[in-house]
Amino acid sequence: MGSQIILPEKFxxxxxxxxxxxxxxTGNDTIKKMEQQLKNSTKLISVGDVTTFxxxxxxxxxxxxxxxxxxNRKPTPDRxxxxxxxxxxxxxxxxxxxxxxxxxxxENAVLSDKNVRIFVNGEEDLAALPAILLAxxxxxxxxxxxxxxxxxxxxxxxxxxxxxxLMNNIIEFQNTNNSLxxxxxxxxxxxxK
Length: 193
What we know:
This protein has one domain (19-156). The protein is globular, with a radius of gyration of 16 Å. The longest helix is centred in the last third of the chain and has 18 residues, at 157-174. The chain is built from eight helices and eleven strands. It has helices spanning 12-15, 28-33, 35-39, 49-57, 100-111, 128-134, 157-174, 181-187, and strands at residues 4-6, 21-24, 44-47, 64-67, 70-71, 74-75, 87-93, 97-99, 116-122, 140-145, 149-154. Pathway: Cofactor biosynthesis; coenzyme A biosynthesis. It catalyses: 3'-dephospho-CoA + GTP = GDP + CoA + H(+). Keywords: Coenzyme A biosynthesis, Coiled coil, GTP-binding, Kinase, Nucleotide-binding, Transferase.
């Protein structure tokens, strides 16, 4: 797992806000509302079981998706389509954390020319944050907003800066011994050790 960013309680209200445009609902009709925007993306990344299920069911295949076979912390039926040819990787990522392993696998998936399924043992509840930071400009990250709908995040430099600032604040809050500096540099786009 390597280093872990643990979400402090004081940042939880910030993460309840939408980091993109909210599309109400969760079914195929919701995906249809955003279809035009999805077709023009450099990379399409989907975070969450329900969002990914409806995306694939609507005939839109993401470049990368992250699932944990759970919705609202309860097991989901194994319904995300596995007939598509995806490279699969599995990572451990506890609830309320972003592990170095998760970040590395998202980065590798985004750089891959293959479709990648990342199965998360634990929770993918915060995976949209590193996905936004690691996705190329003009990509789209989708994630579910429980009880409301799907959030579509268009990746721009200003969106990356917003999330980078948030992540730096979260890391700074817990980084008393500088153990997260390598992970911070990676999320900030500086790959130097």
